Amino acid sequence: MMDSANDVANMLNGQNGHQNADMNVDETQQSEETQATQTADGNSQPLSQEEKESHLFGSLHPCNPAQQRLDLWRTRPRITIGRRGDNDFVLHGGKVSNLHAEILWDGKTDVSSCVKIKDMNSTNGTFINGHRLERGTYRILRQGNEISFGSRSSDNANDDYRYMFYHLAAGSPKTGLYAHYDLGPELGRGSFAIVYKAMSKTTGQWYAVKIIQESRRTGRDDASNSSNVNLQREIAIMRQLKHPNICELKDVFICDNNEINLVIELVEGGDLLDHILQGRVTSEADARHITYQLCDALAVSDLYDADHRLL
Length: 311
Ligand SMILES: Nc1ncnc2c1ncn2[C@@H]1O[C@H](COP(=O)(O)OP(=O)(O)OP(=O)(O)O)[C@@H](O)[C@H]1O
Known about the structure:
By secondary structure, the protein is an alpha+beta fold. It has eight helices and 18 strands. It has a six-stranded antiparallel beta sheet. A hairpin with a 2-residue loop joins strand 9 and strand 10. The relative contact order is 0.08. Bound molecules: adenosine-5'-triphosphate (ATP). Adenosine-5'-triphosphate binds near residues 188, 210, 264, 271 and 309. Keywords: ATP-binding, Nucleotide-binding.
């Protein structure tokens, strides 16, 4: 059982060479030297940060320099946090409840890896990015979320138990969508897909990523040969479609779990339907202009015999 945040940090420094925010330069250098792998010719090579942290599913980095970094070990997928001594992490703040929150990891080490936090009916609340969780409820913890155990009091700087969450279980992806794109907020949902705003890691340019689940598209979990052939055909057609009123397909990723990720041109400004419902199409001339653009795009897609539902 880990007794306190300090004990955990000390243990990590001693046994695993993990660095605290307040570790001095000499100690840091020494820790990097001791964390080396032996190559065949006897030379040692420093471990990458990812290798050094391969025993962790996440870590909590304090915003308050008086606090220690909290490392979340893979061997302990359920971690309790609170003021009482029997918690995995003991935080002594006046606004921290005896049992304040728990953090749960689903044990996965690929991009589907998920970490969640539960507020354990704390008196002063658990906050994610400044928003208080309802007592006893859960949230998914995402990379970069700020977690606060109890609200920060303005008159006592030490009573600041805010931490930045790092999700380490999945490592950095080497292939697939997540190797090339960082996903941003959800843009919307359709019958088959959830669409996210996404940024190319190489160019910094924004796109829309349509994540299509096989089960939503075909009603089955496994991809049949015929549905795969149809999909490949549709993708081939979409790649060829070039029209100012059709979002250009930039990239396609087909995952092992039959999920399909389409990276397409981002169109900002919202849905046409919302536009109409909000009364922003006011004149016949507006309606004519929109209808013309729709028909023009459909005419081009018809030339390729494309499936309009996928467009
Ligand atoms: N290229 C894009 N740029 C910006 N937002 C998009 C883009 N594509 C889709 N969206 C948003 O995502 C939502 C879902 O899109 P999707 O294409 O999956 O479904 P749909 O065409 O709206 O509905 P259905 O699947 O029922 O035909 C859209 O309503 C829109 O808000």
